[in-house]
Amino acid sequence: MTAPSLPDLSARDPAPAGRRLYLRPLGMIDAVGGVPLAGGPLRFDRVAVALRDPAAPAEVEQAVASLPELEAWASRQGLAAEIADRLDALARPRPAFAGLLLDRPRVMAVVNVTPDSFSDGGDFLDAEAAIAQGRAAREAGADILDIGGESTRPGAAPVPPEEEIRRVEPVVRALAGEGAVVSIDTRHAAVMAAALDAGAAIVNDVTALTGDPTSLPLVGRRRPPTVLMHMQGEPQTMQAAPRYDAVALDVYDLLEGHVAAAEAAGLPRERIVVDPGIGFGKTVAHNLALLRETALFHGLGCGVLVGVSRKSFIGRLSRGEPAKRRVPGSLAGGLAALDAGAQILRVHDVAETVQAMAVWRGLRHEETGRL
């Protein structure tokens, strides 16, 4: 991304014909009044405006504007209707997701039924151990239990769907049968179907329903609440020199396309949550940029999920700690996502996250009067 030039929003510049426009909410800390962000507890009173030509995607013009300044500029440029639609997408309340209200942050607990996941591979490969882990996570405050039977860590080998089903089906059935809100973390339609039949409420797909040609029709037909995540490449190759023109804008565009495809297949937008895919085909710099610009993704009109828990970039920024010693960095990244309005955090360390969120909510209470 080149050093941006700043469009003068006070000038009568030509309308940005052919250029894509993006709005990222700002001012969530000190906004008094302002506009609610996604109907949640945070409010924004300014936006970062970005413009770029699809023919030169690395050249981005940016400016910061108050909401009155933005609306005045939009009126001069003949963009009043578009800006009103964009602000509505940023502001309107998100509907409940799998029965969970998104008016406050939610915790999705990772339960890996795998021998080779990067953070806890083999710890819960046995079904009974995974079920016990899910129960413990729920007791610690998890709202969603995300059950996965295939590691998608960098370099991971694919797992046949039949083996994946063998691993996850009894875990999903047991935990859903106890009343837990269960998510199935898979990129295979057969696993999605088996898990939904066993009681899973949510599909969480790291390929945004592109990894299996039958996933999109399945989800469009059965219409479960679904998480669409961005990943560049495949797990085996995704960390081989990932490149972007402007990472947050590129990921936004790709997720916008995935949301549109899911809607066209029959899945309503109100049942979609998007995930920018921290660590999936991204460098440390890419991950940090996505965390700084997480609020941008509210423009898709969906809930936003962020997963930074125990990711390798935390160790790279620190002292090379192994996965299980990256809890403090995970909390720092997660709280940054909450400051940008993320509605769901996907985590390994539930009790620690719930405690950190309680303090975050306490600090926000006096500021907003709404938590």
What does this structure look like?
The protein has 371 residues and is of the alpha/beta class. It folds into 2 domains: 20-91, no CATH class; 106-368, Alpha-Beta Barrel (TIM Barrel). The protein is built from 11 helices and 13 strands. Helix 4 runs parallel beside helix 5 (189-197) and helix 10 packs parallel to helix 11 (350-368). The two termini are 37 Å apart.
Task: Spell out the blueprint of helices and strands.
Blueprint: E1 20-26, E2 35-36, E3 43-44, E4 46-52, E5 60-66, H1 67-77, H2 80-91, E6 106-112, H3 127-139, E7 144-148, H4 161-177, E8 182-185, H5 189-197, E9 202-205, H6 215-222, E10 226-229, H7 247-265, E11 272-275, H8 284-292, E12 303-306, H9 312-317, H10 327-339, E13 344-347, H11 350-368
Parallel strand pairs: 6-7, 6-13, 7-8, 8-9, 9-10, 10-11, 11-12, 12-13
Antiparallel strand pairs: 1-4, 2-3, 4-5
